[in-house]
Amino acid sequence: MKRFNVGGLGNFNPSRGLRNDAPRPNTPASPPPAPPSRPAPPRDGFETASPRSPPSSRGLFGTSQTQQAVQSPKMPGGKDVTSDFGKNPMGFSANNLLNAYNANPPPGLPKPTNTAPFVPASQSTVTVNAHQRPGGNANLTFSPAGGQGVQAHYLPYVPEGSGRFAGINGVPQHPAPGAPSTIVTGPLNGCAVHAFHDKNDQTLSFMHHANYSSNGTNELADFMKKNPNLQHAATIDPKDYAQWNGKIADRYDPPRKEETGATAFAHYDRNSQQWSLAAQVNDIQNGLGPDGRAELKRPDFNLAHQPTQFLQIPILPPTIE
């Protein structure tokens, strides 16, 4: 399957709500005081940080199970922008910095296993809300399905050491009116998100591929051989979003280059009848926001290698054999 990468805001149709000159969030006039050390983002969501790291770490779908009890963010404050996000996620994310840091899923969702990596999308629905303080991140929170907010499918993950793959299947290519048309995840950092067509029932499957930066290409090829019903449609992986931000992370032993991450999601546009897999590149600021989660920022666009501010990968219909 041919892969299409459309990078940058200028590739979107302005009539659908995106602007080529999309402004970046303004810095608050009086930001909260920063703690002595910034959160420590591991290279991958399931990598264990060294003892030199502070207790907060950045991972693909929030924190590990051992961290969640002490790191759950406070209820978000600020303006409720849930409706704006739900009406046009692509356009909203072009003008606002999404933050799913520590946005843990509600209990009760089915959990994938190493032998059964996919769980039904119909059983993995959550309610998404977004709140934004003036000039700050649009903080996402996930709660049980059926609440007041955007209904979306949640893409799960497997804990560190339990496997490489986790995902959802049975996503309609053309969701019915009122059915979820968005798939949410947490911040990407060394992992990948794949989209597949299932040739058995003409639905879509989405998969989180942990630690893709290590040996992801070969692992994906092996996975596809074992699952001949799946046809690869699109992938967002570290080469789409991860680049050196000019800093050395000396919190690790040994120190290493620190890279940018991304907030990824998928959305079905009912006008064009097209699913898209998107990643909004971001970096971590010093300190925590008022609700206890790390504050994100746009990458430094003065870097020699210009970061992609927003990436869209169309998911094409399956090939007719």
Descriptive notes:
This protein is mainly beta and about 325 residues long. About 10% of the residues lie in helices and about 35% in strands. The chain has helices at about 65-70, 80-85, 90-95, 210-225, 240; strands spanning about 5, 80, 100, 120, 125-130, 140-145, 150-155, 165-170, 180-190, 190-200, 205-210, 230-235, 245-250, 255-260, 260-270, 275-290, 295, 310-315. Strands 1, 2, 3, 5, 6, 7, 9, 15, 16, 17 and 18 form an eleven-stranded mixed sheet that branches.
Index terms:
globular, eleven-stranded mixed sheet, 12% helix, five-stranded mixed sheet
Report the total helices.
5
Structural class: mainly beta
Which outline best applies?
globular
Largest sheet: 11 strands, mixed
End-to-end CA span: 13 Å
Give the helices and strands as they follow along the chain.
EHEHHEEEEEEEEEHEHEEEEEE
Strand residue content: 25-35%
Q: Quaternary arrangement of the chains shown?
A: single chain
Low-confidence runs: 1-73
How many runs of DSSP E, i.e. beta strands? 18
Tell me the Rg in angstroms. 18 Å
Question: How much is the average pLDDT?
Answer: 76
Helix fraction? 10-25%
